[in-house]
Amino acid sequence: MTVLEKSAEPMEPERADAPRPTTPRRRRAPYLLTTGLVVALLLLIPVAGGLGAYPIPTGDVISSVAHRIGLGGAELERVPESVLWNVRFPRIVLALLIGASLGCAGALMQGIFGNPLAEPSVIGVSLGAAVGAVAAIAFGLTFLGNWTVSVFAFVAGLITVFVVYGMSRSGGRTEVVTLILTGIAVNAFAGATIGLFIFLAEDTAAVNQITFWQLGSLAQSTWPKVLAVLPCALLGLAIAPFYARKLDLLALGERPARHLGVDVERLRVVLILVVALLTAAAVSVSGVIGFIGLVIPHLLRMAAGPGHRFLIPGSALGGAVVLLAADLAARTIVEPAELPLGVLTALIGSPFFFWLLRRTRRKQGGWA
Amino acid sequence: MKTGLRDVLTGWRFGAAGPTPPPPSAPGDVLAEAEGLRVRLGSREVLRGVDVVARAGEVLALVGPNGAGKSTLLGALAADLPADGGVVRVHGRPVDEWSAPELALRRAVLPQSTALSFPFTVEEVVRMGRAPWARQPGAYEAEDPGDTDDAAVAEAMAVTEVTGFAARPFSALSGGERARVALARVLAQRAPLLMLDEPTAALDLRHQELVLRVCRERARAGDAVVVVLHDLGLAAAYADRVAILRDGLIAADGPPAEVFEGGLLSEVYRQPVEVFPHPRTGDVLITPKRG
Q1: Fold of A85-361
Q2: Which pLDDT band, with edges at 50, 70 and 90, does B24 fall under?
Q3: Percentage helix, strand, coil, to 5, in chain B?
Q4: N or C: which end of chain B has fewer CB within 10 A?
C-alpha cells in the first residue's frame, strides 16, 4: 500500500558524502586559548605587583612570593614587602576575582537569555546590585560585619535579575530590543534610587565614598575587602561550569531543551542565583565596571565556538586577565593620578557594544 | 565516585539513579495516546475532546486544514501544552508524571521552526540530540557497538544527507538544510516515539520523500512515529494511519485508503477535492478540483 512496501530499493544518495570532522582549528582553539590566558596571567601578576608609585623590581616580587609559599626566595625590606603584600596583592586578587566574576556572569547571562547582547551592566543588573550596596554604605549599615555590602548587593541584584528576566521575555524568547529597553528602564530606576540614597545619606564621608565607588575603582583594596567578595565569587564560579551542557541545549530554545531532558525552570532559577552572586561579588567593592562580561565571552565565542564547556571557565579566566591588565593600565597611564577603572572599561567597551549592536541589527535585517 | 559533586549540584541524581531508559516495545504497543483531550489556548478551545493512539511500528499522520489543532495535538502529546481535560499518556503513564530526563529517553520532538541562539556547527547541533543519554550507565559499553553517541550522530547525519556540511555553522544554512539538521538531531536522540511537526514544510521534493522514507524505516524498526503533514499525497503514500482533524475534533481516523475519500476531504477543507487511483501504480492521488 505504501511506497516502501512496493519498491524496497532506496534512491541514489545525493552525493558521496564523506564525513568531515569539525574543523581542527575549532577543536584546538580552547586549549590554545587556555594556555595563552594562563601564561598571560602568570606574566601579568608579577609585573602588576612591581609597577606603581613605589616600583619594585619584578625579580624581587617573585622572590618575595617564593619566600612566602616556602619555595626559597627571600623576604624584601620592610617597606617594599608591606607595599607588595598590603597594597598591591589585595588589589591584584580583587581584580582577578572581579574580572572572573564579570566574565563568567556575562557568559551565563547570554546563555540564559539566548542573546549575545545580555550583560550585567547593559541590562541593569549591575546597577541594581549597586542600589543594595549604596543603601548599605549610605545608611552606615554594618550588622552583617564585613559582608554587609556584599549581602545587600546580592539581594538587590537578585531582585533585579528576576525583574529583568520577567519583563524582557515573551513566548520563551528575548528580543534584543525588549532586552535593551528593559535595561534602560532598570538602569534609570536604579540610578534614581542611588541618587535618592546619596541625598538621604547620613554624612558627607559616606557621600564621598559612594561617589568614588560609583566610578568603579579598585583603589583602596584591602584583604578584608577581598574576604568580603570571596564567598560570592567562589561559589558562583564553582557552580557555573556544571551547567555548561544544559546551556548549550538551551540555545535551541526552551521547548527543544525540555524535549532533550533539561528541567528548564530549575536551570533558570539556579543560574539566575549564580548570576546574582557573581554580579554582587563584582559590584560590592568596586562599583559598576561595565562591558567585561560583554566583550570577553564574545571574543572567545568568535575564536573557539559557542560551546559553553569552554566558554564559561574561559570567560572567567579571560575576564580575570583583562581586568587585571585594565587595572594596571588605569593606575599607571596617568601617574601619579589614577583613572577610574570603570571609566576605562566603558571607554573601550561601549564602542565594542555599539559595533555588536550594529552587527546584530544587520543580521536580523532591522529591529522589526 | 558514583554520586559526585557534579550530580548533586546539577540535580541529575539527587538520591535517585539516573532516568531509566524504556524497555523495548513490541509492534502494536501503544506508546502515546490522548483520551478525551481538551486544550485551551487563550480563550479558544483548540482541542475539544480528541482520542488518538500512536502505536509502535506505525506512522500516524495528522492532517487537516489550518487552525484545526494539528500542532496543538502534537504539542499536548509532547507534554509542551497542559491538558485542560482528558488525559495524555506516554508509554502508558500520564505525561505529567514523567520527569523531563525520563521523557527525553522516550520521545523526540521536531518543532515546526528551528532557531539557534549561538552559531553552533551542524555536527554540534546533531550531537545535542545525544544529551539525554549522557548519564546512562551503559552509554559507553552498550552491547551493540553501533549504539554509541558517535555512531548515532553519524548515522542521523547520513540519513538526512547533512554529513557534507557537518562543520558549517547552523546559522549559515538555508531553511531546508536547517530543517534536515533539526531532523537529524531528533533522529540522533533514538527515542522510540517520534513526533514531527511539519517536517516537510521547507523541503524540496527529493527531501520530502527522503524524510517520510526515514519515518517509515523508523516505524519498521519498531518505533512509533506521529507526523503533522499538509501534503495529503505524502500522507497517503507513507502513513499507516491518518487522523483528519477538523475544528479541534477528529473527523476520521484509519488507513489512508479508507479515510481519504473525496466527499469527506472536500467538506473538511471546504474545497472540492478529487481522490483517484494512479493510472499505473494504483496509489491514492488527491488533487483539488480546479476551474
Answers
A1: ABC transporter involved in vitamin B12 uptake, BtuC (1.10.3470)
A2: confident
A3: 35, 25, 40
A4: C
